[in-house]
Structures are given as structure tokens and as C-alpha cells.
Amino acid sequence: MDNDIQLVVFDLFGTLLQTGSGHNPYRKVLEWARLNGRAARPNDARIIMTSDMNPEELFDAMDITPTAEIMSLFKKALEADIKSIRLFDDAMSTLHRLTDQGVQIAICSNLAKPYGAALELIGGVDFLRCLSFEIGAIKPDPAVYNFVTNSSSIGKENILFIGDSLVADYDGSKQFGFRARHLVRGVSSTPTAPNEYLISSLSEILKV
């Protein structure tokens, strides 16, 4: 690891964690609301991911009034989603190796509040939290990356951002002034198509 890098920021889902159920409970409630007369709004997804309210309060604030049956289905799907979350095999070993080298860790994710429970899977490692529902902003809003620098007191040039989203994780953080790598699992550069910013596993971070 380059001695200039003092903080590595990780995206959460698709980078450190994977989910297997794919129930999309919030999307299903929005679809139900649309079918029952509430038109979809451009900022619906942003509101869901930047709200620190519980789901019942959130839906009420969004002018959505699910029936008891719909809420029951929502909660079951949400529970199944959260239970399906697993760490990628290279996640904890990479985090531990970085901390052993004295590199600080941050986790920066766009997610609805209930999914914050997934952070419990990342045990034994201290990290800075930069979660959209807690800070009220989503990547690639510069406010997110600014939160990281202000909370860590580390300069942009000494921060490395890792994530699987080209726009939110790589482009957004790079434009802000961070170093960055785009994680595409199972795909790497080739001699005929080199890409120094592409990594295929988290362990490659240690070579930066």
C-alpha cells in the first residue's frame, strides 16, 4: 500500500457485501402505490435512501398509505433481504490487512435505513460511517465525499475510494479529488486493454 494513502473508503453492497434474495421491498411498495393512483416521483429513491425514519413514517411522509397486507409483505421481504446479506470472501481479510498497516477505513453507502443493520457483519474493525440515511445525501453528491474529508480530517489526495459503481464510487470520488479504483469482480485489465483503475478483487488494493 502506498504510504501516501491514509484512508481507504469502501462502498458497501457489491463491494464488501452481497445480497442473495433480491426482493426489492421498497420498489414493490412504490409500484403498489403507482398502481393505486400515486404517480412515481423523480426523487422517490433519494428520499428513501436519505431518510432516518422507520418505514411506516417514511411512507407516510411520501404520501403512501400501504394496506396492512402490503406492509406485512414489505416487512417479510425486507427481513429476507437482510438475512441474505453475506460478506464477500476477500472483504474481512483486506480490511484487517489495511488496519494492520495503519490505514484507516471508512464505509460509504447509499442505502435505506433498515439495511444499516448489515454493518454488524463487519466486526473487529474500526471504521468511519458515511451512510446516506444518516448524512442526508447520496453518492455522487459531493456532500458525501466532503463528509468523509471533514470527518476524517484527511486530505483528498491521501484518500482512496473503492466501489463497484462507475458513476457513484469511481467517477464521483475521482472528480472530488480522491484517488479511486473501480471494482468489477472477475474482470481485470488485459495487455491489449489495460486499465490501471480497474480491480477485480479487494485484495488488489494492497498493491496500490
Question: What do these coordinates show?
Answer:
The chain has a 6-stranded parallel β-sheet. It folds into 2 domains: 7-19 and 86-207, 3-Layer(aba) Sandwich (Rossmann fold), CATH 3.40.50.1000; 25-83, no CATH class. Helix 1 (25-35) runs antiparallel to helix 4 (68-83). The radius of gyration is 18 Å and the shape is elongated. Helix content is 37%, strand content 14%. The chain has 8 helices and 8 strands. The chain is of the alpha/beta class. The model has no long low-confidence stretch (mean pLDDT 93).
Main features:
single chain; 2 domains; alpha/beta; six-stranded parallel β-sheet; 208 residues
The first-to-last residue Cα distance is 5 Å
The Cα radius of gyration reads 18 Å
CATH topology of the largest domain: Rossmann fold
Going by CATH, the homologous superfamily of the largest domain would be HAD superfamily/HAD-like
User: Order of helices and strands, N to C?
Assistant: EEHHHHEHEEHHEHEE
- Principal-axes geometry comes out as elongated
Overall number of domains: 2
Which regions have little confidence, pLDDT < 50, spanning 5+ residues?
A: none
Helical fraction equals 25-40%
Give me the oligomer status.
Answer: single chain
CATH architectural category of the largest domain: 3-Layer(aba) Sandwich
Sheet with the most strands, sense and barrel status: 6 strands, parallel
Beta-strand share of residues: 5-15%
User: Tell me, what is the CATH class of the largest domain?
Assistant: Alpha Beta
Per DSSP, the total helix count is: 8
Strand order of the largest sheet: 5-4-1-6-7-8
Number of strands: 8
Structural class: alpha/beta
Give the averaged pLDDT, no decimals.
93
